UniProtKB/TrEMBL annotation:
Signal peptide: none annotated. The chain crosses the membrane at residues 12-31. Coiled coil: none annotated. Keywords: Membrane, Transmembrane, Transmembrane helix. Pfam families: Polysacc_deac_1 (PF01522). This is Polysaccharide deacetylase family sporulation protein PdaB. Residues 56-235 form the NodB homology domain. The keyword Iron does not apply. InterPro entries: Glyco_hydro/deAcase_b/a-brl, NODB_dom, PdaB-like, Polysacc_deacetylase_ArnD.
Length: 252
């Protein structure tokens, strides 16, 4: 037998609970733009976390903040399977490895930034975040990348204030919604299964190309053709963003 417990409240307490719940919900609402998910409302700065759910396009993204070895095997897999990806790199890494960054762009992959130093923005004052972004912008400009407009905050940590700052500086904040945690090296099969099972139309997949990853390149041997066989088409983040312009509605 099922038992249901009913707690009785005074009228004013019930209204108080309703108000608190509504406030909490409003704070964490996600909005959908023709299937495109973004954080916060259409009247406020947003961070894109998913493209158009009615289209079969998906975006494969890689973060790089240190190392120079593992990225080459990943680029080889992308080239062999003829897949375009978007690489988010820190300014500090780009400054140290401009030749690898050039190799990425020569292969017609897209480049976004992770700021300059790969340090959690939520642990910093907003002026420190501004300085980091401006310095990153300056560094990328000096090595020939003046038109970078996409930002992925370090570790994917951000709030409304950081998104507002990013937009003021000309950046679009890019998040993700499929994350196999490949940097933890959980096993090639686990990485493959997570991506293959969770990916749907419009998704942004987060992977890594720093030297911490030991299984990512091998997992791509299965992931890339596997997702293509499911009917998905790999596009850059810019292409995904261009499909995400529509009137927003709340995702329930």
């Amino acid at each position: 037998m099922e038992h249901f417990y009913v707690v009785r409240f005074n009228k004013w307490k019930r209204w108080l609970i309703v108000f608190i719940f509504a406030l909490f919900t409003a704070t964490f609402l996600w909005f959908e733009s023709e299937g495109a998910l973004s954080v916060f409302s259409e009247d406020e700065p947003v961070a894109l976390t998913k493209g158009n759910a009615s289209e079969s396009n998906i975006a494969l993204t890689f973060n790089i903040s240190w190392g120079e070895d593992k990225v080459h095997a990943i680029l080889k897999q992308l080239d062999q399977k003829q897949v375009q990806a978007t690489f988010f790199v820190s300014g500090e890494w780009a400054e140290r490895h401009p030749e690898i960054l050039e190799k990425i762009t020569e292969a017609e992959h897209e480049v976004g930034m992770l700021g300059y130093r790969y340090e959690n923005y939520l642990d910093q004052e907003i002026d420190q975040v501004r300085d980091d972004l401006l310095h990153a912008k300056e560094v990328f400009g000096k090595i020939g990348y003046k038109d970078i407009e996409m930002l992925r905050p370090p570790s994917g940590k951000f709030n409304k204030e950081i998104i507002e700052l990013a937009e003021q500086l000309g950046f679009t904040v890019i998040h993700w919604n499929v994350n196999p945690s490949d940097w933890k090296n959980p096993g090639t099969k686990k990485i493959e299964n997570t991506v293959m099972k969770q990916t749907s139309n419009g998704d942004i997949i987060l992977m890594h190309a720093s030297d911490s990853v030991k299984q990512t390149a091998d997992s791509l041997k299965t992931i890339l053709p596997g997702l293509k066989n499911k009917g998905f088409q790999f596009v850059t983040i810019s292409e995904l963003v261009n499909q995400a312009h529509a009137k927003s509605k709340i995702v329930e």
